[in-house]
Amino acid sequence: MKALLESLRRRDRHLSRVINIGTPYLWLGLFFLLPFAIVLHISLAETALAQPPYTSLWEWADEGVLQVRLNLQNFITVFNDELYLAAFLNSLWVALVCTVLCLLIGYPMAYAIATSPERQRVILLMLIILPFWTSFLIRVYAWIGILKPNGLLNNLLIWLGAIDTPLTILHTQTAIYIGVVYSYLPFMILPLYANLTRLDFSLLEAAADLGCRPFKAFLKVTLPLSLPGIVAGSMLVFIPVVGEFVIPDLLGGPGSLMIGKMLWTEFFGNKDWPLAAALAICLLGLLVVPFVLMQRLERRIGGDEL
Amino acid sequence: MNQGRVKLYTFLGLGFAFLYIPVLLLIVYSFNESRLVTVWSGFSTKWYVELMQDRQLLDAAWLSVRIAATNACFAVVLGTLAANALVRHGNFRGRAGFQLLLTAPLVMPEVITGLSLLLLFVTMEQTIGWPDGRGFTTITIAHITFSTAYVAVVVRSRLSQMDRSLEEAAMDLGARPLRVYMSITLPLIAPALLSGWLLAFTLSLDDLVISTFVAGPGSTTLPMVVYSSVRMGVSPKINALASIVVLIVSLAVIIAAFSLRERPAAKRH
Questions:
Q1: What backbone phi and psi angles, to 5 degrees, belong to B254?
Q2: Has residue B4 been placed in a domain?
């Protein structure tokens, strides 16, 4: 009887493993992992006037010989064209600047919330989550009305007498910075907050008792302990911003050099699917390094903010 | 309150001002009489009336809502299974890869996800004849793929904080795992399921880039309509639409936040 129950238990457990692990694995494998193989495949094809607009990589030559033609021209184009190179570099630069800005603004905010009385914390946290849930597109759109030449910001500054002629902010790199920091700030604050609430603040008291100045205690105790939160938040901002499309398109204007926007133009504007696929592969290759770094660091310092 | 805290709270206040003023201005100017969005010329609700008569916009909104709801239901199931796997099945083989697959959609640039899914759908259609054309189904599948990752994060944190003594008691009394899961675990993590569902719903409702890649000619979602109209310039009608969206999302967040608030019985002994 006991043996029977035991074998039943084991079967249940096995079944539960298969369902719980297998279903999401299968879904993400099919719709997230497999597509990358196909992107790689198509990046090696040639553009064609067909539906879909690319050539097939392999075809049957006569006598049962399978011919495979790999076309590296798309990658050569990407690496030789200075415009793409500039776009890649500029995307990394924008992502870096915005990550640092988000950290500088987000850290004190997360710290203030994490150290506030528990009753207030729920409300303050909700105020951070609310914009995170509110439509991205709408929040970017809101900035157009503020930043444009006859927009609210310029009107205000002229009314205050600070400037005479309207500032040009919309359709510049500055507008991209503002839009990105505004949109991604909650992604920085949430993991930092999750980390800081678990911080043992008695360590700070101990440091103070031992005569440590508050700022030094912050540098020596709080900052190192919140490193997992800093890493998680920074990656949640940095990685998606490198490939950002909506913000450079709407706020940066037609001339903005961002790789996500160029990929979009190649695909929808020029209908060059293979070149767009090659750009996606290059972008992916660029992002694998910080992504793996983040996963490693997270595992080593034991953070689970993601 | 010492001086440090005053400074900290001032900074927090400024941060909130930065986050909220643009959206508040957007809502204020949706009641502006003038067609010029940035010049105030009197209170009016005419843009809301005009919004309600825009057939194309309403159709797109209805399509978006249907996609978002279908997506949210699937994503909650898949995300909960994934959270179970991570919390309950310990160190299974391939756990690192599993976790990687679950984290990657959270940070993957949308242009990459969108392009790769489109190419997958095109290839599948060529080889196995499914999906037949692109539209509701392909957009929903794409949304489920990234929503699942978000739901897994929400459910996972709830599941790992849960007190397991009730489950153990039921097991000791001889209940089978599925029964235990259905009648004890699920009710205990229900708030996380609700907030996961709402999150998946709003993420889907908001998505422009991935939808544009995987949509077919006949299927235009709400963000696509908004995007093409925004590219033409600022219009008070879009302000009115934005205000309605902000209102709905705020309600969803408030519901989710209250349902996720820890109840004494759900945690700790």
A1: -65, -40
A2: no
In angstroms, the CA A255 to CA A264 distance is: 14
CATH number at residue B64: 1.10.3720.10
**According to the model, what pLDDT value does residue B263 have?**
52
Domain count, chain B: 1
Predicted local distance difference test score (pLDDT) of residue B91 = 81
Residue B49 lies in a domain: no
Mean pLDDT (whole number) for B191-203: 92
B177: nearest CB among A16, A142, A277: A16
A142 vs B23: CB contact, 8 Å cut-off? yes
The string of pLDDT tens digits covering residues B230-254 is 888 778 888 899 999 889 888 888 8
Map out the domains of chain A with their CATH numbers: 81-301 (1.10.3720.10)
Q: Decide the pairing of beta strands A65-68 and A58-61.
A: antiparallel
- A239 vs B contacts (CB less than 8 Å): 107-109
Q: Which of A2, A15, A20, A128 to mutate to probe the B interface, most B CBs <10 Å?
A: A20
The string of pLDDT tens digits covering residues B103-155 is 899 999 999 999 999 999 999 998 898 888 899 999 999 999 999 999 999 99
- Class of residue B145 by CB neighbours under 10 A (exposed 0-12, middle 13-18, buried 19+): buried
